Amino acid sequence: xxxxxxxxxxxxxxxKPQISPDGVHWADEGTxxxxxxxxxxxFVRVARFGNYLRLVGELPPGTKxxxxxxxxxxS
Length: 75
Known about the structure:
Layout: E1 2-7, E2 14-20, E3 27-28, E4 33-34, E5 52-58, E6 64-68
Antiparallel strand pairs: 1-6, 2-3, 2-4, 2-5
C-alpha cells in the first residue's frame, strides 16, 4: 500500500487485513500495518486466507487519505 495524498495528520493511522469464509462475516487476520506520511510502500504478507480478503484502514478524526493498494496473488 502507498499513501498518495493526505489531508490532516495521519499520525497513528493504520490498516489491517481481514479474512472471511463467505464475504459477509469478517475477522481480523492479526497483522497491523501503520500508515507512513512519506510516500514509501508499506506491506503485509497474508497466506492461506481462503476466498475473501480485504484491507480495512482507520485514520484519526478529521484526516483523509487517498491510497493505492497493490495485490500480488501467487498460488
